[in-house]
Amino acid sequence: MNIALDLASPVLANPAAFAWVVRLCLAGVVMVNRATLRAYKGRIPPLYRAGVRYRSEPPERDTFADLWRTWKRGHGDCAHLACWRVAELREAGERASLRVTWRVTPTRRAFHVVVRRARGRADDFEDPSRILGMGRST
Known about the structure:
The protein is of the alpha+beta class. Helix content is about 35%, strand content about 20%. The strands form three sheets. Strands 5-6-7 form a three-stranded antiparallel β-sheet. A hairpin with a 4-residue loop joins strand 5 (about 95-105) and strand 6 (about 110-115). The longest helix has 25 residues, at about 15-40. The radius of gyration is 15 Å and the shape is globular.
């Protein structure tokens, strides 16, 4: 599954609508990932052992890919990686969730997605993008 947003859409020019659509896409990818993990139980490696790396998307493009596509490509951006990680944590019984931070300017709408762990600490976040290479020179 791969969802691509048409950033030229006038609806997505509205920051509130853009945020709502992004959250819907993220929730959908987590659900697809959970279904995939169940269907292929034991045949898909955990995110951090799957050999995937972080790779950003061009600023003019926003896509939301499921774990199967991310695994086969060998890379994903913050949304792809965080959705995979949340799905595997939820399948393991943890009530993990996604946390989205926004950077909205007159010329660009950007966001970053991390995992909020459910281990009892309010500041317990995990950033799969950083763990898998974001911020490192190659």
